[in-house]
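hiii so my PI (J.) wants the whole complex modelled not just the main chain, which honestly fair. so below is everything: two entries, each one labled with what it is. i double checked the lines twice but i was tired so who knows lol
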Amino acid sequence: MIELVILVVSAFLLLVFTVWKRRSPANLREIPALTRLYRTLGLSMEDGTRLHISLGRGSLLDARGGSALAGLAMLRHIAERTSVSDMPSVTSSGDPALGLLAQDTLQAGYQAAGAEELYVPTTGRVTGLTPFSFAAGAMNISQNENVSANIMVGHFGSEAALLAEASDRESVVMIGASDDITGQAVLFANTQDALIGEELFAAGAYLSAGASHVASLTVQDILRWLVIITLLGGAAAKFLGMI
Amino acid sequence: MRVFTAVIAIAAGILILGGYFLQGLFPALADVQTLLLNWAIILVGAATLVGIFNLISVHTDKVRRREKGSTYSAILVICLVVTLLLGMILRPDHSAMEIVMNGIILPSEAALMGLLTISLLYAAIRLLRRRTDLMSIIFLITAAFLIFSFATLPFANIPALGTVGRWVTQVLALGGARGILIGVALGTLTTGLRVLFGADRPYGGN
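here's the output for the full assembly
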């Protein structure tokens, strides 16, 4: 019952804040990795290189689907912005269903930019079905396809280190975010500006993906404060012998 | 078409959520939920085949255009097709397929795992050159301390090191990890709600 209440309250808050954020401009704190991502989009267009967006190997049928959906939301806006580039962005994923959705999302981005004829289906790729085969296939993209930036948003475990190593060898900018604790530690050690925890879900808001993305951040902040108050309240109640 | 796909996606999401939360009130929702999830599993199975054909198509294209690294692409396509055909003809539990699995695939993955150890060590060494800030210093000191506290030392083990190491992993690191996971869960919740409301449409809609 509590889960249903949390869901309904979150849905209500998201609707209210989406309407509100449409009227008032977003005021977001600076996240260096996302600022770098924004700059990278423009630079890749100017110097005729491509972006490699890796969505990880999160299955849509389990709890890792959230990070996969966040990656797809970001991909949609990157595809729209870079669709007229000489070198189209390439996506890689380690889950077949995610790979299909990535192709569909890329196409939707091209359609929105009015450049559907420039869409190449092979730019959305499934590079492998196990963590290491996925990483090996994705490494090949950043090494051989004139890539200027590797953007990794999704579910990555320790195999992210292999991708980071390949990026570093090719002097490719790397921006990484994972919902996995191990993946986050690896990315923290391997990237210049790491995205930690829920910052993974903030990319859409920072890429001006719409009011609903900014509203999501506000709802997350409210829910986070509720969790903090509940934890502190529970600890105090336990200390006082009330529970 | 876009409206149609959005309506199907939102309806499926609501029915599955209803199956989780309201099956006590409406038992039929649980059956609908199971049916929809079974369909999803079948579709994911079909998507795996599409993914394999995508892999073949991408690498065949590379070989045809003689792009950089096309030799590897050719080897990949040949091995993939041979393994696929062998698996279909002989069945996965045949001894030849076990040889392919135990003699090629598992050692290759193990080799990548070994490479990963070197990559992580190298990343730790380069961390301060890449980013010299307080968090990086804490990260490195913690990693080094935990390695020493759990490693078998040649002269003698220091009991206090192990106790402090366990406290760091079971209190500090576990608390931090839980905090991060709560943040990720909240992000997943709002992302899921956006898809449920049709604000994000990763299924062909603008």
